[in-house]
Amino acid sequence: MLSYIALLPGIAAFLIATRHDVQYAFLRVYLPVLLLLPDYYRCIFPGLPDPTFNQAACVAVAASFAMNGFPGYRFSLNDLWVFGYALCVSISEYRASGYSDAQNLMFAMLFSGVVPYLLAKSLIEPFGNRFLFAKICVLSMAAVSILNLVELRLGMNPWRFVFDRFFPGQGLEWVTTFRFGLARAGGPYAHALLAGIMMIVAFRLQRWLQWSGAWPDKFGLLPWLPYKPALWLSLTTAGGLFITLAKGSWLASFIGAGLVAVGRSKYRRAAMATILGGMIIVGIPALIAFLDYASVGRENAKDENQETAAYRYELIEHYVDIANQQPLWGWGLTKWPKVPGAESIDNHYLLLLLMHGYLASVFFLLLLLGTLVRLLIHGLRQPPTGPPGSSLSFTLAGIYLAYFVAIATVFMGQQTMPMFFMLTGWAESYMQRRSPEWSDAGEAERRLGAAVPFRFRRVL
């Protein structure tokens, strides 16, 4: 009975949507619940899907969204890739396990994938909520970063300390891991590697907000705070990424920053050509060197880093042949044969291929790489406007590239999945509606106008 508290966000979201509107419930209930509460606690319903905190809220917001006639929604081709991916994963699990075992995954595909995509696509850009969405993400994950210091210092996850008593027997597999003699902060995101991905999103959105001048010079609740709030938020989210001690996420953040730097340049095409040239000149020899480094086998590794790289290399050697035994639909969520000593698949692409086959993998890559390429093309076609760094195209492209790199070292689970689908919905609506880079910067526009006495506007 205690697990029924997971339904409270759903009740709150529906009541608030009824009193205000669906945008309000999406931004001020569902989004903070997703970012602040763990996704591994479920309300158990015998014979029915078992919702998590954020899934319960998502169901309520989706109901309000449908009752109001799907405000802001406009169909696009990308919708087919989202529906196709969710359908393939659901069919795969149904074939492997039957409905009773597959229902939770089907439910997750709907309310942690399809619906977050539709809500973000329909309620952010069409209603001018671009900055508000990003601010709530940043503030929520900045709060998580601060609380994660408890886990870093004590080796105890404060979320588990609070919620384990309400959900007996749940979440026990998500233990705090250690590196360099320090606890790796996972917070409400289950594992430090997943927390690292979430903090990349927070940091990149915060830098975009900071460069766009979206924050006030002082927070009303903290008027005594030295320096501007934007600086503190950037440091806090960067610190949140650092204390995950996730080397894969650190590397992904640096690589993603390269694309963001293109958006800060006045000469974007030249900068993009430089980045691509550097990737070819440096990337190919680096890849060859890495393969030589990783292919020595764990028994011949000289240190922990090489052993980790060798393990991930061995995963591909072991499991590609197993995946090819069930190429179309995969083996299902847990049915794939385990290779002794290599039970943990620390590569989302390989894991997706094993679990759900080539068809689901193709749809996923269409969403990930397809959206990344389209964002770059969209950004390159637009003239530089606003302050340097205010390009939403390149900020989102940088996040997508970071996702692409990071999930090669970890599965895309827990909150990283609905966050990915929300970003995809936001990006799709932004490109579909051809929203200008500066369309939602009212506060920033006023602040810049006050700071610069004479401004000229170029109209083509």
From TrEMBL:
The O-antigen ligase-related domain, residue ranges: 234-365
Top-level taxon in the UniProt lineage: Bacteria
Cellular component terms (Gene Ontology): membrane
Annotated membrane topology: Multi-pass membrane protein
Entry keyword Plastid: no
Keyword Kinase: no
Location(s) in or outside the cell: Membrane
Transmembrane segments: 132-150, 189-210, 230-263, 270-291, 349-377, 389-412
UniProt KW keywords: Membrane, Transmembrane, Transmembrane helix
Predominant location category: membrane
Protein name: Membrane protein
